Structures are given as C-alpha cells and as structure tokens.
Amino acid sequence: MPQRITVDADQVRRLVADQFPQWAGLSVQPVANGGWDNWTFHLGPRMSVRLPSASEYALAVDKEHRWLPALAPRLPLPIPTPLAKGEPGAGYPYSWSVYPWLDGEPASADSIADPVRFALDLAGFLAALQSVDTTDGPRPGQHNWFRGGTLRTYEGEAQRALTALDGHVDIDLACEIWQSALDARWNGVQIWFHGDVAQGNLLLIDGELAAVIDFGTCGVGDPACDLAIAWTLLTADGRQAFRERLSVDEATWARGRGWALWKTLVTCAYTPGDADKPAASALRILGEIFSEYTAGAVIKPKP
Q1: What is the pLDDT of residue 296?
Q2: Where in the chain is the domain with CATH 3.90.1200.10?
Q3: Cα dihedral sign for 236, 237, 242, 247?
Q4: What is residue 65's DSSP assignment?
Q5: What average pLDDT does the segment 279-300 reach?
C-alpha cells in the first residue's frame, strides 16, 4: 500500500503563490470526495489543483502533461487538460498540476437519466479513445499499476480476497469466473485505454455523461480493463448496448469481467460492512457478475 502524505489548503496556497503568482489571489478550498490518488483543491471558481498523495501516484504527472493535450481533441467529451505543472516546494515533495475545473457530478445508478443512452455515450467515448494512434504511448507499468497488462499481476490479491470471503460468497463460482478471465487470451494489439473507468471519474450534467476525468492510469495495451464498468455501474440493458457498440469479442469480454471481479472481490474482502459481512454495494456488484456469467449472456458483436 502506498505511503500517502497529507496536504492542506495553506500548503497549496503557498505552492501557487510561489510558482504561479498570477493566481496567488485566488481562493483555495479542498474538494469534497476529491479522490485517493491525488489531493484535489478548488483554485478560484474555474480551476483545480491536483497533488499526488504518494510517490507511486506522482509517476503519472509527466504522462498526463504529455498525453492529455494530445488526446483531448480526438475525444467526443471533455477531459482534463493541464494548464500548468508545479514543482516540489512548501514542504510538498512531488510535481503537481493545475487543471481547468470540469462541471458535473459523479455518476451513480440513481442519477443517470437514461441507462442505455449513458452506456452508448460511454462506449462511444471509449471507441474514440481506442482509435487514437498509440505510437510512443505509455505501456503498462508502475505509473498505472499495470492496467492494460495481464490480470495475472493481481492473482495474489484475488486469491487472498477469495480466502477472506470464504463462507460469505460463492467461492467456487468466483474461482471459475476468475480462471476463465485468466485463460482468455489477448491478441497483443496495443490500444489506448483510460484504466479507471469508474463512477467517480464519469461526470454527469442533467443525468447525461458530460466529461471523463482522472487519466492517471491511462496507457496503451489491452483495453479490457475499461470494460469493468459494464458490471460495476451499467444496467443489464446498458451492458448489452455497451458491448455491442464496442463490438467486444468473447475473450476480451471475459477479461473485462475478470477486471470487474478482481476489483469487487478486493472491495468485498477489505471494505468494512455490518456484523463482519462484506459491504452491501460490493456484494450487489458481485451478484451482477455472477448472474451475467451464469446466464451465459453471449452478445454477438456486429459485423
């Protein structure tokens, strides 16, 4: 587990004033639920400051400054495009970033106006991302926790979670789904992926997808990691529309299910629940994964 450091508003004010005096007079306020990898602060009414919370997360800063301006014009929805890069100072040890503020509220099942349209809009965004030229793009590594690489990176975590959940969930079925994901081969074609397509990184305005944020785990490799959202947020109808729009083959779908399973198993095992039971929200997602797999829902991709 990374050793996170804390950052407060006064420290951010000093960093901004020292390095970007043109913004020294702007207010600095912490963002509620600003994320884990970065500490996020409002800077005036239309900007934000993002400061990595650990050395591992700081590896993404240079990547974001290199690639987000290149990706943004090729995508159908707004993404964060850095305005300035700060350097260590005021007792803070890493590079950091100033971004425009993107409006919207984090997606949730209750706040999505039309689940199928949302799924299609998200699939369209990912299709555009996947079409971007990958030349010199960042391959999986420590900078993105090996997103876009093999699921076997997380075999140990998955097995420990399964052990912890014995007696709480259907371990045999979970093991079967996990093994099917490990066995599903990737064709090796390098494709751009976001790496953390999750509720908190999908912004809604009036219930519709309006922006996609937090590209710290982006890179080029196997895009199956971006499919986990199909089980963690989408409805059954939305999941089908999402898969059809992206023309996902069975092996890639199985690996995407594996990414969703790994994340959910770890959440179930290590997020506190009531009376020593796994968290209810994670159990609900696990139920989605189990039911979709056991139903044998095979959606034939469009020709």
Answers
A1: 82
A2: 105-294
A3: positive
A4: H
A5: 84
Q: Where in the chain is the domain with CATH 3.30.200.20?
A: 9-100
- Residue 51's contacts (CB-CB under 8 Å, 6 or more residues apart) are 7, 12, 38, 39, 40, 41, 92, 94, 96, 97
Task: Dig out the tokens for 18 from the structure.
Answer: 């020292």
Residue 113 burial (CB count, 10 A): 11
The residues, ordered by sequence, that sit 6+ positions from 136 with a Cβ below 8 Å of its Cβ are none
Yes or no: is domain 105-294 CATH 3.40.30.10? Answer: no
Residues 52, 136: Cα–Cα separation, whole Å: 24
Q: Who contacts 158 (Cβ-Cβ below 8 Å, separation ≥6)?
A: 178, 261, 262, 265, 266
Q: What is the spatial distance between Cα 189 and Cα 86, in angstroms, rounded to a whole number?
A: 35
For residue range 127-177, what is the model confidence (pLDDT) as tens digits? 999 999 999 999 999 999 999 999 999 999 999 999 999 999 999 999 999
- For residue 270, what pLDDT is reported? 83
Token pair of 67, please?
Answer: 């690639």
Please state at what angle helix 115-130 crosses helix 236-246, rounded to 10 degrees. 30
Half-sphere exposure of 110 (CA within 13 A, CB side): 0
Block residue for tokens 């590896």? 59
**Which H helix or E strand runs over 16?**
helix 9-19
* CATH class of segment(s) 9-100: alpha beta
For 204-276, where are the alpha helices, taking DSSP H only? 229-232, 236-246, 250-270
Residue from 77, 51, 48, 80 nearest 64 by CA: 80
DSSP state of 141: S
